Amino acid sequence: MEEKKRIELIVSYDGTNYCGWQIQKNGITVEEILNRELRRLLHEDVAVIGASRTDSGVHAKGNIAVFDTKTRIPPEKLCYALNERLPEDIVIQESREVLPDFHPRKCRSRKTYEYRIWNRRFRDPLHRLYSYFVYVPLDLEAMREAAACLEGEHDFASFCSSGSQAATTVRTLYQVSLMREGDLIIIRLTGNGFLYNMVRIIAGTLIKVGMHVYPPSHMKEILEARDRRQAGPKAPAVGLTLMKIEIDENEPHYPKAHE
Q1: Which of 38, 86, 198, 234 could cross-link with 46 by S-S, CB 3.0 to 4.6 Å?
Q2: pTM over 0.85
Q3: Which of 55, 68, 124, 183 is catalytic?
């Protein structure tokens, strides 16, 4: 009898047409599509486990998913077979075997998100699906000053939407950076984990700083308040992309033969 093995997928997707990652009743999701096409390909009752359950409209370049299978298709070839079946807005960048007990949401990792803001007088139709349009000129230096206090370990309760099931609101942000590329402002955050809507609330608050609605010093006050009502609005999903997930090098991940 063929033993099951656990396969890891690196998944990229344009979230425009999906109600997020996680299966739900009110619309089609990335997880639903992956399960459907894997079952058709492998003729098994497959269910993927995702590392990050991104919200409706959020994009990803490097989400991680795992599933168990008895297939004889070589793990590294599964991405080719699956991509033949997937819609154009979901692509598997890599597939490989991992340890049977590897769980992408229960391991130590670093996640990197980017929030993109199209900041100019008029919209650009070529940027409409992947950035949030703000016509008011934003003060990038003020935004950088405000963002600096977010680095390190903090209680991010002020930047968490209600409905979160997190056991604790303490997280560590290793890097928070802002850069401008022409009319595009990119907010990049790398951390050991993110609360529900955390990046979008941080982005919405930084936009208010960039508009001079809040002074940069107010960001520290918001953080210390541990009160969602003190922070700015949640920025729209359209500007958010999960860039990558890096598994801690000390975390058991691959079978020894693959290391």
Answers
A1: 38
A2: yes
A3: 55
* Main-chain dihedrals φ then ψ at residue 16, nearest 5 degrees: -55, -45
55 is catalytic: yes
Do the Cβ atoms of 214 and 208 come closer than 8 Å? yes
Per DSSP, what are the bridge partners of residue 85?
none
Q: Going residue by residue through the chain (259 aa), what tens digit of pLDDT does each one get?
A: 568 999 999 999 999 999 999 999 889 999 999 999 999 999 999 999 999 999 999 999 999 999 999 999 999 999 999 999 999 999 999 999 999 999 999 889 999 999 999 999 999 999 999 999 999 999 999 999 999 999 999 999 999 998 777 889 999 999 999 999 999 999 999 999 999 999 999 999 999 999 999 999 999 999 999 999 999 999 999 999 999 999 988 878 877 654 4
**Max CA distance (Å), the chain:** 66
Say how far apart CA 198 and CA 206 lie, in whole Å.
12
Asked if residues 202 and 132 have their Cβ atoms less than 8 Å apart, the reply is no
